[in-house]
Amino acid sequence: MAPETNSPRVDYAFGDIRVEPAAHRVLRDGHELELEPKAYAVLLQFLDRPGELIRHDDLLERVWGHKYVTAATLSRVISQLRQRLGDEAAEPRYIQTVHGLGYRLVAPVAAAHAADAAVARPEAPAHSYYRDHDRHGIAVLPFVNMSGEVENEYFSDGIAEEILSLLTKLPQLKVSSRTSSFFFKGKEADLQMIAAKLDVGTVLEGSVRRAGNRVRITAQLIDVASDSTLWAETYDRELRDVFAIQDDIAQSIVDALKVTLSPKERRAIQYVATADVQAYDDYLRGRKYFYAWNRRDSLRAIEMYERAIARDPKYAAAWAGLSDAYVMRHRFLDRNPEHVARAMDASERALQMDPDSAEAHASRGLALFISQRPREAERQFETAMMLNPNLLEGCFMYGMICSSLGNFEKAAWLYLRATEVSPTDYLPQVYLAQAYSEMGRKDDETKARRRALELIERALGANPDDARARYMGAASFAALGEKAKAVEWANLALRSSEDEPMVFYNAACTFAVLDEHDRAIDLLERAVQLGWGDRAWMANDSDLASLRGKPRFQLLLTSLN
């Protein structure tokens, strides 16, 4: 007999999964899962007909009402559902694919009255950081460079980033993004405060001492609520063992948090991107330069990524990094068709080397977008988000693409997701405010602008010379009607650079919001002369809305075709 999914008095269980329709929640090993509404609706369809083949069209009709939705959308939702349930398509425990026809729930389903089942329901984790989350919240802080040489800073940062990257592959963990965790680099900050700001319950901290071919890495995992060490270790090894050390740390964290991994998840954290230590070193240097977001360092990033690839042509992360660097140069620094071609080639190589890499799919999405293939780009980002919901670049960059396409409602949702992944990063808040502006949601826009300014001023407290924080803040001040502050900050950003197109473009946004149209267009023309090349963003940027009817602005857009 089929379960009565419409009854609020019945809960269902299969394997380590429990579904509670009355509470509208799904649990795995007692921990509540985050599911998209459509994924939850599909799961209820399976519970309504366990063991039966449910055809593609039937699911599309029942869940989407056959609105403009393709089988690819259904496939993505099924993949997300499998990932959350800890299932695998190749060896299904729960959801079986019947190729060309549909899907069926193959696990035995037990139904019980909700009141009876409540007695056996596992208790929520003890401390408050898990209160509203189904996943363990963890932040990986930048490792302290103990080498005595500032030059080695990239290496200690890179070790922490690589461990963070491994952990983001596990849906059971809510991993604070690099941007948020690294905000506290070099600051004297209480762990309780850090955990509260990042909304996590555990923190990994460590140090790195590198000397010649030797490396000494210490790490400890701290439960913030109890101020106790869950795990700690010191590794004194040769440099070539650095990959094994990272894997061991990731596995030790999983063990300490008592996270159950599927075979696929276990393979994910044991994956070694490259066996070549020098290639790895070049990659870390490239990533350091990439994050600087300026002309000179973007060229250095390309050089470092290419050196890494020359040593290890199968290094997928280096190929993805190279693609991203060329995308950034084309969009913001040096508009050039050759950069598009190189980004396409590099992103394709990244996917060939590691088709399960969320980073590779996100890189491919960016490359496709600058190649004027937006729909294909969207599909790549959907895949990236499915493979790694914790990947900031996945939701944030996808949001920027949606903004460029004028799909501000979806962009706002993606920016909101980015603010959850990276709560101390001001960029998602800035772009969220712009999306709200285009949607006419003035109150929401104002709140987002205020929150963005709080984060921007905090960033400037750590680095007063941060030009990007200045020009982003200037535009927000302008939108809030604080003209004097807006002009002051825009001019400070302009004085910091004579040849960075991003500075001129974003300063132009401030003056456009202030209705100083000629000044704004002068700055935009200078940005384009210096290499700004993202026409789609310029055409849909809400900060430039007052310029859209100006002939000079339209001529400038035409020049970017």
Automatic annotation (TrEMBL):
<dbReference type="InterPro" id="IPR011990">
    <property type="entry name" value="TPR-like_helical_dom_sf"/>
</dbReference>
<dbReference type="Pfam" id="PF00486">
    <property type="entry name" value="Trans_reg_C"/>
</dbReference>
<dbReference type="Pfam" id="PF13432">
    <property type="entry name" value="TPR_16"/>
</dbReference>
<dbReference type="InterPro" id="IPR001867">
    <property type="entry name" value="OmpR/PhoB-type_DNA-bd"/>
</dbReference>
<protein>
    <submittedName>
        <fullName>Winged helix-turn-helix domain-containing protein</fullName>
    </submittedName>
</protein>
<keyword id="KW-0802">TPR repeat</keyword>
<feature type="domain" description="OmpR/PhoB-type">
    <location>
        <begin position="9"/>
        <end position="107"/>
    </location>
</feature>
<feature type="repeat" description="TPR">
    <location>
        <begin position="433"/>
        <end position="466"/>
    </location>
</feature>
<dbReference type="InterPro" id="IPR051012">
    <property type="entry name" value="CellSynth/LPSAsmb/PSIAsmb"/>
</dbReference>
<keyword id="KW-0677">Repeat</keyword>
<feature type="DNA-binding region" description="OmpR/PhoB-type">
    <location>
        <begin position="9"/>
        <end position="107"/>
    </location>
</feature>
<keyword id="KW-0238">DNA-binding</keyword>
<dbReference type="Pfam" id="PF13181">
    <property type="entry name" value="TPR_8"/>
</dbReference>
<dbReference type="InterPro" id="IPR036388">
    <property type="entry name" value="WH-like_DNA-bd_sf"/>
</dbReference>
<feature type="repeat" description="TPR">
    <location>
        <begin position="358"/>
        <end position="391"/>
    </location>
</feature>
<dbReference type="InterPro" id="IPR019734">
    <property type="entry name" value="TPR_rpt"/>
</dbReference>
<dbReference type="InterPro" id="IPR016032">
    <property type="entry name" value="Sig_transdc_resp-reg_C-effctor"/>
</dbReference>
